[in-house]
């Protein structure tokens, strides 16, 4: 069976790296919620302190919140659990692969900045 072009269509992927008891993380989540009312993207939230998130803890433990914006290819049913374990995944049992240039915002950012990076990502996908 071959993947159809529709399955390989890139979609904007936004990942928020966060941790418990982080007031900036709560603010970042609110900003993303407001952007989601105007824009369409696939959103995931990752707790960098979770035991199964060592790779992200090493990168972002002292930098949360971090929002990464790229595009995703959803490649059908995953053969095993995806490497990116998220709190909210709209594509369960699907392999997610990040593609293109990864753009990031760290610590403090507003809706305009998030939307600008989404625009850049979509222009280059």
From TrEMBL:
Spell out the family assignment given in the record's similarity comment.
Answer: Belongs to the glutaredoxin family.
Record the organism.
Answer: Alectoria fallacina
Recorded protein name is Glutaredoxin-like protein
Taxonomically, what lineage is the organism? Eukaryota, Fungi, Dikarya, Ascomycota, Pezizomycotina
* Gene3D superfamilies found in the cross-reference section: Glutaredoxin
Q: Which UniProt keywords apply?
A: Electron transport, Transport
Q: Which InterPro entries match?
A: Glutaredoxin-like (IPR008554), Glutaredoxin-like_YDR286C (IPR052565), Thioredoxin-like_sf (IPR036249)
One Pfam annotation reads: Glrx-like
